[in-house]
């Protein structure tokens, strides 16, 4: 059974509040303030630190790859088949993850916003320019907004929407996604690879993309579910 439109209202409200909070953050100088905690005119001390680069950057990439592999295995041998989503729903969620990890890096690839480590303030050449000043170059290489690395974790919001019928599992999925996303984002902030806003916008983009994708799937399946229900009822009467 697909959730009614009412069931999606709390999610829409939450995403709306998240958008408001991110816009409020963008209106402050919080990005530079956080970057200055980690870097100075000599650059970012943690840029090549083992814990930031190898553990939180490369390590979480491997974690994301393993979760994707688990989702593929789950299509063949479903986990909790009795009370879990159908194979069709699991396949749709997997496609939602792939959608998010393709779209967010694609946006990043055309961005003119450079990473913190490219700014003159931190020992390079670029000047600070808001990512809202579309089309305005900052003198650096650009291609840094939103955070593609953060999207590698936040894309798994698709699993949160997938398990909406099992709140206990859904809460664990949400906790895992937020923890991985926060750890990966923190590592990138410390390395000077991204500003906080880059990660926040990546998280929101993934949440919206995977949520809309999930809803589109449910709208697609609803007519088939309604047609199947009378057939099951008739079969029960015949028995």
Order of helices and strands: HHEEHHHHHH
Structural class: mainly alpha
- The whole-angstrom Rg is 21 Å
Overall shape:
elongated
Topology:
Elements: H1 5-26, H2 30-38, E1 39-40, E2 43-44, H3 50-76, H4 87-109, H5 148-154, H6 157-162, H7 167-191, H8 196-238
Antiparallel strand pairs: 1-2
Description:
The chain is elongated and about 60 Å long. It is mainly α and 239 residues long. 36% of the residues are buried. It is built from 8 helices and 2 strands; from the N terminus they run ααββαααααα.
Sum up the structure in keywords:
mainly alpha
Short description:
The chain is mainly alpha-helical. Helices cover 68% and strands 2% of the residues.
